[in-house]
Each structure stands twice: as structure tokens, then as C-alpha cells.
């Protein structure tokens, strides 16, 4: 489960990073 959690965390970071660059 730790691996799955890491993948979800990375996806969240990528989405947040994309939104940040759109500002």
C-alpha cells in the first residue's frame, strides 16, 4: 500500500504543480 500511496501523492504533486504554472 505504501507504493500506491506514493503514486497518488506524486500525482497530486504533479497536478498541483501544473495548476501553479497556469497562474
Automatic annotation (TrEMBL):
It comes from the Eukaryota. This is Uncharacterized protein.
Amino acid at each position: 500500500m505504501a507504493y500506491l500511496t506514493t503514486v497518488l501523492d506524486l500525482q497530486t504533486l504533479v497536478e498541483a504543480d501544473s495548476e501553479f504554472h497556469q497562474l
